[in-house]
Amino acid sequence: MALKSVIKGVHLVPMGTANAFLIKGNDGLTLIDAGFPGKESAVFGAIRSLGHSLDQLKHLIFTHGHPDHIGSAAAIVRESGARTYLHPLDIPMARSGGPFRPLKPAPNLLAPLLCKLFFNPNERVEPVTIDQPLTDGELLPVAGGIEIIHTPGHCAGQVALLWRPGRMLFAGDVASNMMGLGDPLGFESLEEGRASQRKVASLSFDVAGFGHGKPITRDASNRFHHQWGI
Known about the structure:
By secondary structure, the protein is α/β, with parallel strands linked by helices.
């Protein structure tokens, strides 16, 4: 499968029904999320197809600690030695490999079925050590600058990541773009989730990538504002 470029310097790495993103910066490669368990070969293939060796993956940043975002992390870190980053509220789940906090389905007709199919709070994945906690509002000096935006609701430790050089938002599961821009499968707190969607809708960015669904490559913040802006 050909690696898909989202914008200059960012490639989408398909991980089954979840996405990861690879950023090429002056400080090496940065991976956003690590997909389901057993998907590390997709990441390794992507790195090699760009002409890099695995040890050039320097940073692995998680939007949150669910199994479809940290599942292959331990295997990726073993091969690459990448430094790992996650919000403190989700670090215990990553370090234990589960169980995970339960979700309530999003308020739409398909969500109860999809939530049951794709999320099992009792699932176990290989634990991964987190090297650095993420702080809301910090500018991480990685890949030219990544702003950390705490976006709880779907998951208490979820963050969105605003990559400043490319004006691209990595939204994690604050939203999905499976059948148009909308909710993730479920929420730990719907009220917090709505507040986080409004928070993201107030930001300025051109492009958005999602844990699930296709990227939005033009006028992305306007789409968010239309959906959730005040």
